[in-house]
Design a protein that fits this description.
- It is a single-pass type II membrane protein.
- Belongs to the peptidase S26 family.
- Keywords: Hydrolase, Membrane, Protease, Transmembrane, Transmembrane helix.
- The chain has one helix and nine strands, in the order αβββββββββ.
- It has a single domain (3-137), classed as Umud Fragment, subunit A (Ribbon).
- With 140 residues, the chain is α+β, with helices and mostly antiparallel strands.
- The radius of gyration is 20 Å and the shape is elongated.
- The strands form two sheets. A seven-stranded antiparallel β-sheet has the order 1-2-9-3-4-7-8. Strands 5-6 form a two-stranded antiparallel sheet.
- The protein has one helix at 3-26; strands spanning 28-32, 46-51, 63-67, 74-81, 86-89, 92-95, 111-116, 119-124, 128-137.
- The N and C termini lie far apart (43 Å).
- A hairpin with a 2-residue loop joins strand 7 (111-116) and strand 8.
Length: 140
């Protein structure tokens, strides 16, 4: 092999690696479910792919990835209730607000009730990374 051919090969390899990293960072991301606390939706070791650029509306039953504002971790959960839905807690009825707050100024500021294993949390729309889809499971 000549030096020119080696240089072209290395340049193509570097460009392909950069494109792959850009796609994984900005378009699709793969997460691994860390432990059994995520049941009934996931088992430890499940892999999910997150579409970061989809503009499709979030519906009940969708699996989403979102960031936790407290410790900046990424969580995966299933959407149980949408903005405007009424939920029953004990004997009381509560309505998920159509607008999460007036001070953030976001036109599309909404809250979703999401299940993470046995927990239920309210997630702001701006915390959502994207819709997720389970792709495979690695048994460890």
């Amino acid at each position: 092999m000549h030096i020119g051919q080696i240089f072209k090969f290395l340049l193509a390899l570097i460009i392909a690696t950069l494109v792959m990293l850009a796609i994984r960072t900005f378009i699709f991301t793969i997460y691994t479910v860390p432990n059994q606390d995520w049941r009934p939706d996931f088992d430890a070791g499940d892999r999910v792919i997150v579409n970061r650029i989809s503009n499709a509306p979030i519906l009940k039953g969708d699996i989403i990835a979102f960031t936790d504002t407290v410790d900046a971790t990424t969580n995966i959960g299933r959407v149980l209730y949408l903005p405007g839905d009424t939920i029953k807690y004990g004997k009381e009825l509560y309505r998920i607000p159509l607008i999460c707050c007036r001070r953030c100024g976001c036109k599309d500021c909404k809250l979703y009730l999401v299940r993470i294993g046995k927990q239920r949390v309210l997630v702001h729309k701006h915390q959502i990374i994207g819709k997720a889809k389970k792709i495979y499971h690695l048994k460890f």
